[in-house]
Design a protein that fits this description.
heterodimer; A: 348 residues; alpha/beta; Rossmann fold; 7-stranded mixed beta sheet; 5-stranded mixed beta sheet; 12 helices; B: Rossmann fold; 6-stranded parallel beta sheet; two-stranded antiparallel ribbon; 43% helix; globular; binds thiamine diphosphate
């Protein structure tokens, strides 16, 4: 296994590893077997495992999700891939009414070990219907597990954990994270239990970033140094189950919590995390809180408005500086070239 | 009629070629699904229906939009992300709209416009309006459950819909035969009890068939729905300005019969040279003006980010 790998390679090799050691794992979804192989995340798997275990599907999200439930009930471990999470909306009935509830409503007699991989789009005019975050919808539902890894290491660990889990797991990927490189887990047989990670230690504010916003939070933390603010950055990685302990511990130390969602803030993961932490702290220490996320509108494709739609390292730094000082400081950092988002060029 | 066909066919072809030409300069920062090679369905259908009729389309909406009379400067400005665009820069290439011309928007989620088209048609019928709805979609959309649900409901309610399936053989890179056990879309429509025609890419053939259906609807609002499966070929990659034969999922030889039967050229050759050249000159000038307009137009102001979430007269 290479020491440094891309996020794409992490997903691909997790799938390959588990398919090689567990014959029950099957992989399917629109375009998993086409020349572009879901941006490379399914490359080579058809050749290695054959078309019975790796196959493209008709455009039929609801039926394919229902079929995944059926396959899981028959003893397989299906992985169903969606090139955009927006298309999972067509499968909500099977996912929420069936997959999530099968175990409970049958008194534990049945269970549905299935994985849904779904990608969030961003940039190059993805626009209204190819850019949504949507993961809080799944967090709302008992019976679904949800993770949103932001590094190659966590992508591999999450996917392996998800495949091995006996219940439905949704892995939220992000198109721009596919360019990330980093180490992969060494001991893939003994992966840590789902938990959050402190990705940068600090003292003045706790900054929780979800999915691609984790990257922006790390950039924000670097900008905040200019103002002498030391941000502790946390990546929850798993949203269900949610590791509130790690976040609570940090907030008790810093007294300020900002969660940056990779979606809209209303009923978002930020709302849930902040409420959960405050419920635990109950005024033991004073805590300032802030939710950040998409502007509360549909994503526009025109570049200027698209730029305003998303939080970025600079706007997060600005808002966190205000949070820490308890008012409008009127500071936004100058953009630094090494903290700029990669430029993504289409056509898709 | 041939002159009208040619003007529209040539105009769509040349607009799309210009989009492809400027694309590498990044003035269009948005995915584009070009209609090159598929012009004749849009033109045959839109010439056959009436002014008051409306369209529902997929993201591959450029050709139907233009064929129905959608504003050209508005389209190009939309692709450029400008405030003067059809949707003020807030839709992009995949959501062209021109309500005055009956272009009722477009969806990037495959299959989703079908029930919208059926509902609109039913609504028009309930309101006793002589309005037919042409709904454009690809063969991929017919994989979706909502395709069958929509056809059934349209047939049940005799909704005045003209279902236009542009069968270009592929959903992205996956051929119909790898997605459908019975790759006979028209047959599926017939099974729902819908009057169905299998058509080629010949623009006159498409026009005649749709015209006949439209006349039937004019006489009897309960004559519909109608279904047309048009065999057609996409010349460019699924999304983007280039060809994609190098990917290996299809081959130039497969395309050859379609290229040989290029409806833009075939129809053009039937016109007197002077007539053809006059049309071409006018269209070229119009296209040049539209791209110049888009290039010099303003981007939307930042405050535009927050408009159009709801209407201004909100009671909730
Ligand atoms: C519900 C849904 N699933 C998947 C996609 C991804 N996707 C975009 S275009 C496309 C192929 C559609 O093919 P077809 O309907 O034949 O239209 P064409 O592109 O050929 O015009 C797919 C699968 C989508 N946009 N929506």
């Amino acid at each position: 296994m290479p020491e440094e790998a891309t996020y794409v390679e992490a997903i691909r090799s997790a799938t390959e590893l588990e398919m090689a050691q567990d014959p029950r794992v099957v992989l399917f979804g629109l375009d998993v077997d086409d020349p572009k192989c879901i941006q490379g995340t399914t490359a080579g798997l058809l050749d290695r495992f054959g078309s019975e275990r790796v196959f493209g599907t008709p455009l039929a999200e609801e039926a394919m999700t229902g079929a995944a439930v059926g396959m899981a009930l028959s003893g397989l471990r299906p992985i169903h891939v969606h090139i955009r999470i927006d298309f999972v909306l067509l499968a909500m009935n099977q996912l929420i009414n069936v997959a999530a509830k099968t175990r409970y409503m049958h008194g534990g007699k049945l269970h549905v070990p299935m994985v849904v991989r779904a990608m969030i789009g961003k940039s190059w005019g993805q626009g209204a219907q190819h850019s949504q975050g949507l993961y809080p919808l799944f967090m709302h539902i008992p019976g679904l597990k949800v993770c949103a890894p932001s590094t190659p290491y966590d992508a591999m660990a999450c996917l392996l954990t998800a495949i091995r889990d006996d219940d439905p797991v949704i892995i939220v990927e992000h198109r721009l994270l596919y360019y990330q490189t980093g180490p992969l887990p060494e001991d893939t047989d003994n992966l840590p239990a789902p938990s959050a990670r402190v990705t940068r230690p600090g003292n003045d504010v706790t900054l929780v970033g979800i999915s691609h916003q984790q990257e922006e939070c790390l950039r924000a933390a670097a900008y905040l140094e200019e103002k002498g603010i030391s941000a502790e950055v946390i990546d929850p990685i798993w949203l269900t189950p949610l590791d509130l302990d790690t976040i609570e511990t940090s907030v008790r130390k810093t007294g300020a919590l900002c969660v940056v969602d990779n979606t809209w803030t209303t009923c978002g993961a930020g709302s849930e995390i902040i409420a959960g932490v405050l419920e635990r702290i109950q005024g033991d220490v004073p805590v300032r809180v802030k939710r950040l996320g998409y502007a509360p509108v549909t994503c526009p494709p025109t570049p200027g408005l698209e730029e305003l739609f998303y939080p970025n390292g600079r706007t997060i730094a600005r808002d966190v500086c205000d949070l820490v000082h308890g008012g409008n400081v009127g500071w936004t950092p100058e953009e630094r070239a090494n903290l700029r988002e990669i430029t993504f060029k289409g056509p898709f | 009629m041939l002159e009208r066909f040619y003007r529209s066919l040539y105009r769509i072809r040349r607009v799309e070629e210009e989009v492809a030409r400027v694309y590498p300069s990044d003035v269009i920062k948005s995915p584009v699904h070009l209609s090159i090679g598929q012009e004749s369905t849009a033109v045959g259908v839109c010439e056959a229906i009436c002014e008051q009729d409306v369209l529902f389309t997929s993201y591959r909406c450029h050709a139907p939009y233009l064929a129905k009379g959608g504003d050209l400067p508005g389209m190009i400005a939309e692709l450029y992300g400008k405030a003067a665009g059809a949707a003020g820069g807030k839709g992009g290439s995949m959501h062209l709209v021109d309500v005055a011309k009956g272009v009722m928007g477009a969806s990037a989620v495959v299959g989703t416009p079908l029930p919208n088209a059926v509902g609109y048609a039913l609504g028009a019928k309930i309101q006793k309006k002589d309005v037919a709805v042409a709904c454009f979609f690809g063969d991929g959309a017919t994989d979706e459950g909502v395709f069958h649900e929509s056809l059934n409901f349209a047939a049940l309610k005799r909704a005045p819909v003209l279902f236009i399936c542009e069968n270009n053989g592929f959903a992205i890179h996956t051929h119909q035969k790898f997605r459908q056990a019975v790759p006979d879309i028209a047959g599926h429509a017939e099974a729902h009890g819908i009057t169905t025609r299998r058509l080629s890419d010949n623009v006159t053939e498409i026009y005649d068939a749709v015209r006949e259906a439209r006349e039937a609807l004019e006489k009897n609002p309960d004559a519909g729905p109608f279904f047309f499966e048009c065999s057609i070929y996409r010349w460019k990659e699924h999304v983007g300005p280039s060809e994609d034969y190098q990917l290996g999922y299809r081959h130039l030889e497969d395309a050859q019969p379609w290229l040989d039967n290029d409806q833009v050229r075939v129809v053009g050759e039937k016109l007197a040279v002077a007539t053809r050249e006059a049309i071409e000159q006018e269209v070229e000038a119009e296209i040049q003006a539209a791209f110049a307009f888009a290039a010099s137009a303003e981007f939307p102001a930042p405050a535009e980010l927050y408009t159009h979430v709801f209407g201004e007269q909100s009671h909730a």
